[in-house]
C-alpha cells in the first residue's frame, strides 16, 4: 500500500484490478478486495474511474497460453470516491455495482 | 508499362475521380445544413464515402503490387472479419485451442494454399478438414454445454471470413484462354461491380424505395435492389474491357455478383440483428 500511495503522490495514474484474481465463475465480478477502499480513504481526492474491460475471459482465460485476437471493448464510468464515514463493505459494494452497471449485456 | 498495369491505373484514377465528386457533393450538402443539425442519411453517406476512399486506396495499391499484394490484403481482411465474427459467436474455454487454431493455423494455411494455387486443397480445406477436425479439438476438453451451437457458429465464421473471402484472390488462379496474366483484373471487376451496385442500391432505396424486403433486418427495399442491380449490370457492361466474358457475359456476371452480394448482406444483417449490433 505504501508504494501505491507514493505512486499516487507522484501524480501517476494506476490501474487497479480490485477483484485480486481472475474470475472463473459465472458471476460478473468476484468480491472486491479491501485495497481499493484503503486507497480511497488514504487519498480521497483521487478519482476512482470504474472501467469495464469486455471479453477478457474469452480472449485469455486462466490457464491458456495463446491469447485470441478478439475485439476487446473498454467502457469507462463516472469517477467515484469514498464518502465521509462510509464503511468498507458499503464502499466496495457501491464500487462493484458501478462497475457491473457498465457491463454490456451478454447476447450469445 | 504493361497493359494490365495501365488498366489498373486507369481504374484507380477513375475511382478517385468518382470519389472526389462524391466527397464534394457530401461536403456541399453538409455545408448547406443548418448548424447543430445532424442528418443521419448524410452521416451514413459520408462514412461510406470515407470507407470507399480506404477501399480504393488499398485495393488499388494491392493490385499494383500484383498477386502478393492482393493475397496480403485479403488475408488481413479475413483476419479482421474473423476477429469480429468470433467476438459475437457462442464459445467456451473448451474452444480456446480450436479458436486459436482457426486464427493462427487455418487462416494462414488457407491463404498459403490459395497462393500456391492448390485448388484441389483450398476448395475443401475448411469445409471438410477444419469442419471435422476443429470440433475434435473442442471435444477433447470434455465440455458439452451448448456444444453443437459452439462448433456450428465457429464453422460459420470460418466459412464466411476465411473460405469465402479467400476465394476472391483465388480468382487470380483461374487459367482463362487468351486472358493471360490479366486475371488480377477479375478481382477489380468483382469488387467494383459489387461495391457500386451496393452504393446505387442504397441511393435508389432512399429515393424511390417503398417495399421493404425484410424490414426487421435491414432497410433494403425491392425497388432499391432492382435499380442497384440494373446499375451494376450497366457498370459491368462498361467494364467489360477488363473482363474476359464479352459485353453480354460481363453484364450477366455483374448482375449475378451484385444480386448475390445484396442478399448476402441481408444474411449478415440478420446475424447482426440477432446479436444486437
Describe this structure in words.
The complex is a heterodimer of chains A (108) and B (277). Chain A is 31% helix and 6% strand. Chain A is mainly α and 108 residues long. Chain A has a two-stranded antiparallel sheet. The model of chain A has no long low-confidence stretch (mean pLDDT 87). By secondary structure, chain B is an all-alpha fold. Chain B is 75% helix and 0% strand. Chain B contains ten helices and no strands. Chain B has helices at 3-32, 40-65, 67-88, 96-116, 119-122, 125-139, 147-166, 184-208, 222-238, 246-274. In chain B, α2 packs across α3 (67-88) and α3 (67-88) packs antiparallel against α4. Chain B is globular and about 60 Å long. The mean pLDDT of chain B is 90. The interface between A and B is medium-sized, with 14 and 18 residues.
The average pLDDT score of chain A comes to: 87
* H/E element order of chain A: HHEHEH
End-to-end CA span of chain B: 46 Å
Most extensive interface: A-B, 14 and 18 residues
**β-strand amount of chain A:** 5-15%
- N/C terminus separation of chain A: 40 Å
Number of extended strands of chain A: 2
Tally the helices of chain B: 10
Derived structural class of chain B: mainly alpha
**Which stretches of chain A are low in confidence, meaning pLDDT under 50 for 5 or more residues running?**
none
Identify the overall geometry of chain A.
globular
Beta strands of chain B, count: 0
In what order do the strands lie side by side in the largest sheet of chain A? 1-2
**Derived structural class of chain A:** mainly alpha
Shape of chain B: globular
Mind describing the biggest β-sheet of chain B?
none
Amino acid at each position: 500500500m505504501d508504494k501505491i500511495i507514493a505512486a499516487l503522490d507522484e501524480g501517476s495514474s494506476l490501474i487497479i484490478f480490485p477483484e485480486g484474481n481472475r474470475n472463473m465463475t459465472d458471476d460478473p465480478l468476484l468480491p472486491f478486495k479491501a485495497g481499493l477502499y484503503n486507497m480511497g480513504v488514504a487519498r480521497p481526492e483521487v478519482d476512482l474511474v470504474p472501467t469495464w474491460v469486455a471479453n477478457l475471459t474469452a480472449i485469455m482465460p486462466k490457464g491458456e497460453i495463446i491469447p485470441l485476437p478478439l475485439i476487446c471493448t473498454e467502457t469507462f464510468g463516472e469517477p467515484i470516491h469514498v464518502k465521509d464515514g462510509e464503511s468498507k463493505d458499503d464502499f466496495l459494494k457501491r464500487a462493484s455495482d458501478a462497475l457491473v452497471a457498465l457491463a454490456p449485456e451478454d447476447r450469445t | 508499362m504493361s497493359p494490365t498495369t495501365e488498366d489498373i491505373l486507369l481504374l484507380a484514377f477513375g475511382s478517385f475521380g468518382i470519389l472526389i465528386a462524391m466527397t464534394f457533393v457530401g461536403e456541399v450538402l453538409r455545408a448547406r445544413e443548418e448548424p447543430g443539425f445532424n442528418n443521419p442519411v448524410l452521416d451514413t453517406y459520408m462514412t461510406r464515402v470515407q470507407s470507399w476512399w480506404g477501399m480504393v486506396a488499398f485495393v488499388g495499391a494491392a493490385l499494383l503490387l500484383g498477386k502478393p499484394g492482393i493475397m496480403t490484403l485479403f488475408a488481413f481482411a479475413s483476419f479482421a472479419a474473423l476477429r469480429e465474427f468470433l467476438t459475437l459467436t457462442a464459445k467456451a474455454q473448451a474452444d480456446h485451442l480450436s479458436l486459436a487454431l482457426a486464427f493462427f493455423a487455418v487462416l494462414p494455411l488457407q491463404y498459403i494454399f490459395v497462393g500456391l494455387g492448390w485448388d484441389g486443397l483450398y476448395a475443401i480445406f475448411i469445409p471438410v478438414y477444419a469442419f471435422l477436425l476443429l470440433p475434435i479439438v473442442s471435444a477433447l476438453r470434455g465440455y458439452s454445454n451448448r456444444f453443437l451451437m459452439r462448433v456450428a457458429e465457429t464453422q460459420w465464421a470460418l466459412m464466411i471470413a476465411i473460405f469465402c473471402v479467400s476465394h476472391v484472390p483465388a480468382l487470380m488462379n483461374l487459367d482463362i484462354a487468351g486472358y493471360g496474366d490479366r486475371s488480377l483484373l477479375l478481382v477489380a471487376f468483382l469488387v467494383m461491380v459489387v461495391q457500386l451496385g451496393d452504393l446505387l442500391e442504397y441511393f435508389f432505396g432512399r429515393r424511390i424505395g417503398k417495399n421493404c424486403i425484410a424490414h426487421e433486418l435491414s432497410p433494403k427495399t425491392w425497388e432499391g435492389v432492382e435499380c442497384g442491380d440494373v446499375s451494376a449490370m450497366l457498370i459491368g457492361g462498361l467494364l467489360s474491357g477488363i473482363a474476359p466474358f464479352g459485353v453480354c457475359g460481363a453484364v450477366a456476371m455483374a448482375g449475378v455478383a451484385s444480386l448475390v452480394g445484396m442478399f448476402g448482406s441481408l444474411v449478415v444483417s440478420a446475424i447482426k440483428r440477432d446479436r444486437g449490433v
